[in-house]
Amino acid sequence: MAASRKMKAEEFKTVVDSLYGMIPDLSVKYKLADKLIQKTEYDQLIKTKLSFAEKDKLNKVSLQKYIDSFKDKDNSGEKVAVLYASGSINSGDEYNEIYSEKYIKYIKELQEDKKVKAVVLRINSPGGSANASDEILFESAVEKNKTSCCFSVIMRFRRLLYCNGSR
Q1: pLDDT (tens digit, 9 = 90+) per residue, 36-86?
Q2: Residue 150: exposure state from Cβ atoms within 10 A (0-12, 13-18, ≥19)
Q3: Is 84 helix (H, G, I), strand (E, B) or coil?
């Protein structure tokens, strides 16, 4: 995909690891998308590409239904959860960037799920609040000790890589 976007492999990896694809404007800025369009425009584009008549209906499957279609294939019931966090680290309970209270809540929810046997918290951040970082790291250590769940934290701060894992 990097070649089709005329990007160096390392540059492409950085863009993807930074989760820029989750923010529409950044998707275009970092060449993950050509342009932003509305749902109606997208449907029309697909119909044109597939040579559908205007009156023909597109049969679509939501991402959630697609994911759910694979659930019956995993008989073990055990899961490895990967929790992604990207952006500067702050104290609080907001949704944009990394806010300690929100991620502590996510960590606790994963630990309460009996099917989750391992959790990987993957953080890509330029830095931020040392206190908020410590809160998240402390909570992951507390939760790791409460259960038999394997819990690893991988953090990337610019060029520094930190890994705190078990087992």
Answers
A1: 999 999 889 999 999 998 888 888 888 888 878 876 565 667 888 888 888
A2: middle
A3: strand
